[in-house]
């Protein structure tokens, strides 16, 4: 037969004993840092999906061929550069 044993020590603890098992300052700092990293990761994921769904909205609207001088638009040489 299989016997299952339950640990009821946490249920029987008083308020003072529960304070002894609270998180230390280092643990609280680590949890806060991990939480901030998760928020940052979530923002990056949302930004990446927005770029994937509409990639041309993040590009500047200026003419990308402004640096080409001496070539006419629509010519064969212009298309090669």
From TrEMBL:
Pfam families: Cortexin. The chain crosses the membrane at residues 30-53. Its main location: membrane. InterPro entries: Cortexin. The keyword GTP-binding does not apply. The keyword tRNA processing does not apply. One of its GO terms (cellular component) is membrane. It is a single-pass membrane protein. It is found in: Membrane. Keywords: Membrane, Transmembrane, Transmembrane helix. This is Cortexin-2. It comes from Eleginops maclovinus (Patagonian blennie). The lineage of its organism: Eukaryota, Metazoa, Chordata, Craniata, Vertebrata.
């Amino acid at each position: 037969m299989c016997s299952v044993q339950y640990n009821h020590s946490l249920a029987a603890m008083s308020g003072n004993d529960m304070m002894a098992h609270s998180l230390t300052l280092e643990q609280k700092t680590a949890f806060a840092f991990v939480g901030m990293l998760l928020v940052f990761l979530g923002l990056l994921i949302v930004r990446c999906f927005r770029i994937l769904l509409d990639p041309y909205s993040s590009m500047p609207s200026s003419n990308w061929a402004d640096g080409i001088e001496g070539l006419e638009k629509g010519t064969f040489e212009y298309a090669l550069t």
